[in-house]
Amino acid sequence: MARRLTVRAVARVLAFSVLPAVAVAQLPAKPENLQVLPKDMATDSVVTVMRGVAMSLGVRCQFCHVEREAAAGAPPPAAGGPGGGGGGPFQNFDFKSDEKDHKKIARIMMRMSDSINTHFLASIPNRDNPPTNVTCMTCHRGLSKPGNIETVLMSTTARGGVDSAITRYRMLRNDMASGKYNFGEQPVTDVAQRLIMQQKYDDAVKLLQMNQEFYPNSVNIDYQLAEAYLAKGDKDQGIARLRAVLAKNPNDRRARQRLQHLGVQP
Question: Quick check: 207 pLDDT over 50?
Fold first, then answer.
C-alpha cells in the first residue's frame, strides 16, 4: 500500500504543469498494461499524467505509443487536440503495446524520479517544506532528450566546425524564452576552456569573441581570451586582452599578476 501511495504522489508531481484533462470517450474505459502507475488509476488521471510527461518533453502521444493507421473516412484530428501535430485521435493508438523503446525508457525514468524523490531527496536533513521534487521538466525542459548548450556546442564543433557551432548557438538563442538551454555567460566559457585544453585555440577564440558580443562587460571573457591567445603563442593579443581586463576592472589581481609574469607593466 505504501508503495502504491508513493507512486500516486510521484504521478501528481509528474503532472504539475499539464493542460486540463481531456474528454476520455475515445480512450479505453480501463487503462491496460500499467506497470509503474497504479493499475487501478482512473483513465482520466492517467491521461493527465501522460500529458504532463509529453509537455515536459515537447512531444506528442506517438513518441511513446504505437499509432495505427486511421480507418478510411475517419475525420482528421483537430489541431491542438490529443492527436494534433501529426498524431491521430485516441482510438488510433494501441496504448497497451510495448513496441516502442521510448515507452520502456519512460518507465525507467519514472521509477528513477520516484527513487530520487522518495529515497535520496527525502534523506536530506532539514529539507524545505514543502519540498522541491524532481520532475520530467527538471532535466528535459521541453527537449525529448535531455541536453545542455555545452553538449550542443562541443558536438557541433566536432561534426561541422566552430563556425557551425556558432551559427547553431545564435539560432537556439533566438528561443531563449523557452528555457530549454542556459544562455548565460558560463556555458560558452566552459566549452572554450575545453577547446583550449585540446589545443584548439582558434576555435576557443571564436567562441569567446561570440560570447563577448552578449556579455561585453565581462572581465572573465577578456581574461580567458588572453589565456587562449597566450597558449597559442600570440603574446601581443594576450597582453591586449589582459589590459582590457584592467580597463574594466583596475583592481583585477589576476590580470596584474599575469602581466607581471610576462614582464609587462600593467
Answer: yes
